[in-house]
From TrEMBL, chain A:
The chain crosses the membrane at residues 41-61, 81-103, 115-131, 151-172. Fluoride-specific ion channel. Important for reducing fluoride concentration in the cell, thus reducing its toxicity. The lineage of its organism: Bacteria, Bacillati, Actinomycetota, Actinomycetes, Bifidobacteriales. It catalyses: fluoride(in) = fluoride(out). The keyword Hydrolase does not apply. Na(+) binds at residues 121, 124. InterPro entries: FluC. It is a multi-pass membrane protein. Its main location: membrane. Residues 1-25 are annotated as: Disordered. This is Fluoride-specific ion channel FluC. GO terms for cellular component: plasma membrane. One of its GO terms (biological process) is cellular detoxification of fluoride.
UniProtKB/TrEMBL annotation, chain B:
The gene is fluC. It comes from Pseudoscardovia radai. Keywords: Cell membrane, Ion channel, Ion transport, Membrane, Metal-binding, Sodium, Transmembrane, Transmembrane helix, Transport. InterPro entries: FluC (IPR003691). Belongs to the fluoride channel Fluc/FEX (TC 1.A.43) family. One of its GO terms (molecular function) is fluoride channel activity. It is a multi-pass membrane protein. This is Fluoride-specific ion channel FluC. Fluoride-specific ion channel. Important for reducing fluoride concentration in the cell, thus reducing its toxicity. The chain crosses the membrane at residues 34-57, 69-86, 98-122. Na(+) is not transported, but it plays an essential structural role and its presence is essential for fluoride channel function. It holds the Pfam family CRCB.
Amino acid sequence: MSISHDAHDAPGAGTADDAGAAAPDTAQGAATRPYDALTDWGVYLSVFVGGFFGTLVRYWLSVVMPQNGADGGVMYWGTFTANILAAFIYGCVAAYLGAATWLGARRRECTNRGLGMGFCGGLSTMSTFAVEQFTQLSSAGGTPETGGVPGGVAFVVYVSVTFILGVLLAYAGSVLGARLAQGHAAGASSAGKAGTGDSATKGAQA
Amino acid sequence: MTSFALALSVGALGGLGAVTRFTIDTQIKRVYKAAFPLTTLVINIIASFLAGMFAAMAAAGTLAPDPKLILATGFCGGMSTFSTAINEIVTLLAKERYAVAAGYVACCIVVPVVCAMLGYAVA
């Protein structure tokens, strides 16, 4: 579990802060921290591109999946799928990058921001979710005659399922991410010993 | 608007929303270091309020469907985030900050919908 919070804190505001404070325009700033100026625009670009694609996927899901969470229905499946998927991917990416010590700091920063903040942030939404909740609360929903679900009940189910599954999948994602990083590190260190041709060791570690 | 141009616009505004979120997050985190994920909450508050406003404008007919989609699904959807909030909750639980986690979950459930209602009401 510590991997998960390290990943959250690590390529976090620290690097971007220093980049902003370094006044990258000055020759001195560029000389002492040559990568920070690039990190600035590289990170912004990663976030933009990630957000672009994440939003498109969310838009597509909202079009192809049923979104009748009110007026008798319960779930906005498009929004729900997008949110849950994003929670899982974010958990996985954050845990993986937190343990991916073989990658450079800038690479990790851009990947973390691009995939996490950008793609997952674009894929997930709290604003659409909020308006949907509002719609559910203000909708009478179904009645015993029509067989639908009352708006208030739909709200409780939709919100609970979204948050519970979100947390579970985020945790599952972080476990997977940590395992993948371990596997990659183990594979890399065995490859380093490959001179001895010890394939048995590699097999055991994988 | 062609559906391709519309999709492109939704995506672009989503990217802008994400960059806006990143900017606000970075700025607030320079001065705010406590455990409670205030940055994400502030971002979601703003986006939910705007989304409520756009919903009201669309319902009243003052905002056409295409622009509404671009602004609400695109910008607000890109700016707001559920995945960051959920992972912040998981991180808080991992650090055994259960009270903060519970408070944050409560905020995430109540605050955005209230903001959407407020936005809807004032538009």
